[in-house]
Amino acid sequence: MAPRKNRFITRKMNKRPAEVLVSGVLLALVLWGVGFLFGLFVTPGVAEPGMLQSMFALVRDFLQIIAGLILLAAVLQYLLRGALLKR
To answer: Where are the bilayer-spanning segments (predicted)?
Structure first.
């Protein structure tokens, strides 16, 4: 099991910086889109206004935080790999 995991990590680390940035941005956009869809479900006047509404808001906010962290990691990785490849 360990060699397969190492091949996966090696394959991901051997990608070009621009390719990693694009895949990170696309993943972040998908998560933000899912968060936006959860935001559409938060409507006033749902059966239990406190329970269901707060759950959807919590999931939406969590997805947006994760998307922001993925986007930040993709940009930082792009910048660091670009700087290291120039050396």
So the answer is: 20-42, 62-80
In the predicted structure, residue 79 carries a pLDDT above the cut 60: yes
**Is 63 part of a structural domain of the chain?**
yes
Which residue, among 58, 69, 56, has the nearest Cα to 27 in the 3D structure? 69
> Total structural domains in the chain?
1
CA torsion through residues 37, 41, 42, 48, sign: negative
Burial degree of 17 (CB within 10 A; 0-12, 13-18, 19+): middle
- Note the pLDDT tens digit of each residue in 9-31: 666 667 777 777 788 888 888 88
| Average pLDDT over every residue of 48-72 | 77
Q: Please name the residue that has the structure tokens 């509404």.
A: 53
